[in-house]
Amino acid sequence: MLKQNDTFNLTPGDYIGYLHLVKGELKVANESFTAGDAFAMDPKQQLELQASSDLEALWFTLPPVR
Fold it and tell me: Structure pTM?
């Protein structure tokens, strides 16, 4: 859970990451996401998330594709 204007650096490490926004609004790299939106991240990728409103999200760590 992030509060409005909170920022968070997200790095999935050696795994594929998948973030599903349940409630609220989020900005990532000049893209806006709202409840119901989702995106995946490659291993080693790093993104800064900024909450445009209070939000709740689900984070999934998935094994890398071999």
Answer: 0.88
